[in-house]
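Researcher: Quick sanity check before group meeting.
Model: Go ahead. Protein one:
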Amino acid sequence: MKQSLLEAKNIHKSFSVKPGPFARTLSLKAVNGVSFRLEEGETLGLAGESGSGKSTLGKLLLKLLTPDEGEIIFRGKSQDSFTARELLSFRKETQMIFQDPYSSLNPRMRIGDIIGEPIKIHKSFVSAGYHEQIVALMKRVGLNEEYFSRYPHEFSGGQRQRIGIARALAVSPRLIIADEPVSALDVSIQAQIINLLQELKVEFNLSFIIIAHDLSVLHHMSDRIAIMYLGAIVEMGTTEQVFSHYLHPYTEALLSAVPHLEKQDRRKKIVLKGDIPSPLDPPSGCPFHPRCPYARLEVCAVTPPPLEEKRSGHLAACHFCLNLGD
């Protein structure tokens, strides 16, 4: 079997939460048994409502957090067994683009120094020289050389996100995790950033994990999509499979909210009853059953459905796979 770039095996992560000064400490399950593989040059989209565990999973994959259970393997080696030198190499090969282009840049640093900081840390200088290397990165992401000495507050949101992208590229990574990279930007700017990331993926042979709640963004960017709900993946498949032949009722509801210009492509809007349950007190059985219009309580409220292959390469966690997309 071909070796994957990154593999997650049954990842769990919980946090201790105290709701009030006199309340007992509770356990919040942020990531609950996530497994997947990411191949070289592939883009995997992670979708779901706020609170589904997407960002926590991204931090676990980058070893910014440590899982309570499970194993994350990068280039065939477990993160748990990294030596100090291997960990430094991992930090260089995996980078992150943050959601908020306003708070993710140090306001006291000039942008040339912000972009160049990873180069200094990892000693990734090229023969062309430090300054020339940064200028080349700036130009590649659409920033003028004259901006080198300016501060973040002098730029728009789209320009700041370009600075963050240049910073991520500075050390020639193999994997970039982008956490809601366009959600804080105007719609007119979102398309520019999406197109830029697509171009960079091909040019530098990058692998991406794109975290987003907007499925229309993932439709344009992803090779495969994983849908998360209450910390677990409930459906995963190619972009075509998830959009045209979805297998999970939660995916159906998410897709119904995606706007379509063509009348024949429009789906009936599905409004889920209630809010996403609290991860402090998740439902028994299938975590989606309290909001699912197809739930059979005698089964769904009792037995958690496993994430299993329903079609070739298409996985879903549902007791009653209704072939909703057909």
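Researcher: Fine. The other one?
Model: Protein two, sequence then structure:
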Amino acid sequence: MRVLITGGAGFIGSHIADRLVARGHEVRLLDLLLPAAHPRYPDGRPDYVGHDLIVGDVRDPATVDAALDGIDVVCHQAAMVGLGVNAQDLPAYAGHNDLGTAVLLAAMDRAGVGSLTLASSMVVYGEGRYVCADHGVVRPGPRNESDLRAGRFEPRCPVCKSALTGGRVPEDAPLDPRNAYAASKLAQEHLAASWARVTDGAVVALRYHNVYGPRMPSNTPYAGVASIFRSALQRGEAPRVFEDGGQQRDFIHVGDIAAANVAALERGGPAGALTAYNISSGHPHTVGDMATALATAYGGPPPLVTGDYRLGDVRHIVATPEKARRELGFTAGVDFQDGMREFATAPLRG
């Protein structure tokens, strides 16, 4: 199988490429090498990428047409990631993520490539699953800034304002993106689903949870929280944990993410449709737990819980990985503590 990986020189894409080649597949990488995620490389390319690499923009039709020559399937990882720093980021997210996806899909139609594995995200759900003792499953709205400022971080029942019990989000949960990145990832899914219907193509959308591991970009506001904490430790600083550190997430190693992509690419999906899967470990931890585990493994200062917050962040998001296990045969294999010990000394980019 010959696979085009967009964003293939990036954190996740490069691990997918390595794993595909190890399984006997051929890969071609297309990557813009965005400065937000990549430093300047002496030879113009990362030294960890030993595969066919085209440095180019997925938003450019001619570049994508050339990259698709002879390709069987596409693994679409190229995206601008992160919550979004402010409103001025909106055009960049819409351009890189949504226009880029639209250009890629149109080019796939021209090339007759009918199978896509799409990097989606758990952020499309917004808040996680919550149950009220009196009103059952409810959907809390975005948290109020006055509550966050006062340290009231837990969502309340939108009907009776009572405390809620958290649960795990299935793939058929309502979708409710709450920041620029989340909106752009959901738009990618909608564009891909539309393409599948009109071309009879197949899309597998992998909704990643919080990914960490070697080759993460460092020292950038667009990086994930694990990279931000690790970068602080590398500078000799304590990781700064927002809110009270009790936010629940599912931290999954990049090696497991790569394995899920390989499973999706080799299996494919039903024609004419988009099929979504939660890609998570199934073993959630709090952000405070992660910061403590990483600081301990690194041997740096303990985390500092700041009480700060970011509008657009959600409190808890934990999903069930059972559908991916059942249909893709995927189960995460890297233990949280083992993964944090490795990540504490793993090389970052930049």
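Researcher: One line on it for the slide.
Model: Residues 20 and 43 are 24 Å apart (CA to CA).
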